[in-house]
Structures are given as structure tokens and as C-alpha cells.
UniProtKB/TrEMBL annotation:
InterPro entries reported for this sequence: DUF2065
Transmembrane feature ranges: 6-23, 44-60
Keywords from the named record: Membrane, Transmembrane, Transmembrane helix
Pfam family, one: DUF2065
Species of the source: Frateuria terrea
Name of the protein in question: DUF2065 domain-containing protein
Keyword Lipid biosynthesis: no
Domain of life where this protein originates: Bacteria
Length: 61
């Protein structure tokens, strides 16, 4: 695994951990709301997040 990828994965873990640490009830609320969404809607949100992330990475290069 390239060094940059390792750093990126660590940063994702830190950010996710901060969310759980700082606002656990808000996180639980978001999960409850996500359970009400259809799998198709979640898939669309996931695809948009991937595309946005890749676009930002491309802009940063």
C-alpha cells in the first residue's frame, strides 16, 4: 500500500472517530434516517460521494 494511501485511510478513521466521539447521538440519528432510505437512494448518495471525492483529488493534483 503506498504511503499516501495509508495516510488518507488514517485521516478517514480520525474524521469518522471524531464524529462518533463528539456527537454520538447525532450519528445515531443519521443512521436511523439512513435506514429509512431505499438501497437505491443510498447507492446514489455513495456514487455522488465517490465522484465528488475523485474530482477533489484530481483538482488537488
Amino acid at each position: 500500500m503506498p504511503h499516501e494511501l495509508s495516510i488518507a485511510l488514517c485521516l478517514v478513521l480520525v474524521l469518522e472517530g471524531l464524529m462518533l466521539f463528539a456527537a454520538p447521538r447525532h450519528w445515531q440519528s443519521m443512521v436511523r434516517q439512513a435506514l429509512e432510505l431505499s438501497p437505491r437512494t443510498l447507492r446514489v448518495f455513495g456514487a455522488v460521494a465517490v465522484i465528488a471525492g475523485l474530482a477533489v483529488l484530481q483538482l488537488m493534483r
